[in-house]
Amino acid sequence: MSTLSLAVRDSSTMLRRNLLHARRYPSLTLNLLLTPVMMLLLFVYVFGDVMSAGMGGADRAAYVAYVVPGILMMTVGGTVVGTAVSVSNDMTEGIIARFRTMAIHRPSILVGHVVGSVLQCVMSVVLVGAVAVAIGFRATDATALEWLGAFGLTALIAFALTWIAVGMGLVSPNAEAASNNALPLVVLPLISSAFVPIDAMPGWFQPIAEYQPFTPAIETLRGLLLGTEIGHNGWIAIAWCVGLTALGYLWSKSVFNRDPA
């Protein structure tokens, strides 16, 4: 078999392994999925009227439309935390050491984690999106091309953040540390434009919300689904994705290829 055939075969095997783990131990995935659902319900039904009133008197339906793209990006950030935990478990429980002794394509171990995580992210976004539709979210004006763009952006963000999460998992001494190290992927959406416009934030806080990867991704997704102005956010979001993917890949590869102590 050629090197490419071996890589594809071994990566497929590792992908099946990770999907089986997710199916047999769904508690982590469910816990990470419940967080964005609870945030969505909280901000719509508890804070919705107050938040919409602070945005120029918009009604709750308008606030639902505003907040859902941010919740979807939060879903991606939360889901990849499970990837960091899974990678850390593999590193600390000895299975990686065993894989190193086998005649397999070594990068396939990480590829299986990454592809499996992206698939879980997409499935989680679909489930949270279904909840959003159930409580009134509509994107009827979005064209098929815009829906495709929104799906592609979500997958690209998931791919980039997954590589970062893999690196966090590789350098963590245990699953608890991996979960803590990946916490910024959950916190950053909270301090973005997910819940209120940046203009409504205090002046000193606006740069924190603006110059981070989630805000341009949220604004781009909002523009694709709701028809709002995207501006340069689309290109900025793609640039963030490319940069984070390259950083996460090189970091993960470097740590994974180190000789075990």
Automatic annotation (TrEMBL):
Keywords: Antibiotic resistance, Cell membrane, Membrane, Transmembrane, Transmembrane helix, Transport. It holds the Pfam family ABC2_membrane. The chain crosses the membrane at residues 25-48, 63-88, 109-135, 147-171, 183-205, 234-252. InterPro entries: ABC2_TM, ABC2_TM_bact-type, ABC_2_transport, Nod_factor_ABC_transporter. Residues 27-259 form the ABC transmembrane type-2 domain. It is a multi-pass membrane protein. It comes from the Bacteria. It is found in: Cell membrane; Membrane. Belongs to the ABC-2 integral membrane protein family. This is Transport permease protein. It comes from Streptomyces roseolus.
